[in-house]
UniProtKB/TrEMBL annotation:
InterPro entries: Aminoglycoside_PTrfase, Homoserine_kinase_II, Kinase-like_dom_sf, Pseudomonas-type_ThrB. GO terms for biological process: threonine biosynthetic process. It comes from the Bacteria. GO terms for molecular function: ATP binding; homoserine kinase activity. The gene is thrB. Belongs to the pseudomonas-type ThrB family. Keywords: Amino-acid biosynthesis, ATP-binding, Kinase, Nucleotide-binding, Threonine biosynthesis, Transferase. This is Homoserine kinase. The lineage of its organism: Bacteria, Pseudomonadati, Pseudomonadota, Betaproteobacteria, Burkholderiales. It catalyses: L-homoserine + ATP = O-phospho-L-homoserine + ADP + H(+). Its EC number is 2.7.1.39. Residues 27-258 form the Aminoglycoside phosphotransferase domain. Pfam families: APH. Pathway: Amino-acid biosynthesis; L-threonine biosynthesis; L-threonine from L-aspartate: step 4/5.
Length: 318
């Protein structure tokens, strides 16, 4: 998508004056993304991204924006939010929360090679370590509680075979989340949506992670599983590509060594990461919101990945 809330240059002429950015010179809606309304914003001070948050509230948003600030201050490459003249990271626009962040250089690498996966793995480990002393707490809002709420909303749309798969996997994940192994996993702020389209590269140089608006406190291993399930697969089949998997996991492990508990949780976590996006894509597909531009993501992609992760033993974590 996504421009759910249309905005013109005229609309923000006055509004922009609360930021130390000079006059707004250009504003262009961004077609990709499915969660928020995003715009490239040119001001007298440079290039930025304006985001209007469609689902997250004024109460929830400081967790994300202050996390980006926190990580950027510790050398993790992420967009820096721009504070208003009053020192606020959030402002109201058309009745909704809005923020301006720095624009990252480069572009998404949609055909990643092992060298890109290694860069992502190393930066992900650095991000997890840098988040350890982040003081705010917010659960992953697309975690188990949300899966429990969403499952009955999508079940009526599924074939018998897929309904059986969803019920069985939910049962498995509910039990797994109560296990001793799960409770030994290290937790902290995680990105939780680190797909190829949420990382910028300039050639082989990683220039930043962005789109932190699904971030929350969860297991670090869940973040690794989400990332591997997108970066290290054959997109047609969902099968893991060993060279990219090894490059990403080895680079992560070199910065933040995996634990024995994480090794034993790896296959259930790869399944959990597939289930999470199968569910959200099913929900978005069957209960779409109004939007100016919309390209729903394909739920069957993650159904395929989930079936594959259940059927195939996970690669070694380290
Ligand atoms: N900080 C940024 N720097 C550069 N481009 C960005 C930045 N934030 C968003 N974008 C661009 O906007 C697009 C949509 O942003 P995204 O955060 O993925 O949207 P959504 O939150 O709706 O999923 C990205 O694909 C990217 O091209
Ligand atoms: N990555 C998710 C959907 C979230 O979209 P994004 O553009 O914010 O990453 C998916 O692929 O289902």
């Amino acid at each position: 998508m996504a421009v759910f809330t249309p905005v013109t240059l005229d609309d923000i002429g006055q509004w922009i004056q609360q930021f130390p950015l000079g006059k707004a010179l250009a504003l262009k809606g961004i077609a990709s993304g499915i969660e928020n309304s995003n715009f490239f914003l040119t001001t007298e001070r440079g290039e930025y991204v304006l985001t209007i948050f469609e689902n997250l509230s004024f109460e929830q948003l400081p967790f994300y924006l202050r996390l980006m600030d926190h990580l950027a201050a510790r050398g993790v490459l992420v967009p820096a939010p721009v504070a208003t003249n009053a020192g606020e990271l959030l402002a109201e626009l058309h009745g909704k929360p809005a923020a301006i962040v720095s624009k990252l250089e480069g572009r998404s690498q949609l055909d990643p090679q092992p060298v890109h996966c290694a860069a992502v793995g190393a930066m992900l480990a650095r991000m997890h370590l840098a988040g350890q002393d982040y003081p705010l707490q917010q659960p992953n809002l697309r975690g188990l509680a949300w899966w429990n709420d969403t499952t009955p909303l999508v079940l009526p749309y599924l074939s018998d075979d897929n309904a059986h798969l969803l019920r069985a996997e939910m049962h498995f994940q509910q039990a797994y989340a109560c296990s001793d192994t799960y409770n030994q996993l290290q937790q902290g702020p995680v990105h939780a949506d680190l797909f190829r389209n949420n990382v910028m590269f300039d050639g082989e140089r990683l220039t930043g992670f962005f789109d932190f608006y699904f971030a929350g406190c969860d297991t670090w291993l869940f973040d690794v599983a989400v990332t591997v399930n997108d970066w290290c697969i054959d997109l047609d089949t969902g099968v893991l590509d060993q060279a990219r998997v090894r490059a990403m996991l080895d680079a992560y492990h070199a910065v933040r060594p995996f634990t024995a508990a994480e090794q034993s949780a790896w296959q259930p976590m790869l399944r959990a990461a597939a289930l999470r996006f199968w569910l959200s894509r099913l929900y978005d597909f069957h209960q779409p919101r109004e939007a100016e531009m919309l390209t729903p993501h394909d739920p069957t992609h993650f159904e395929r990945i989930l079936r594959e992760r259940i059927a195939t033993p996970a690669p070694d974590l380290y």
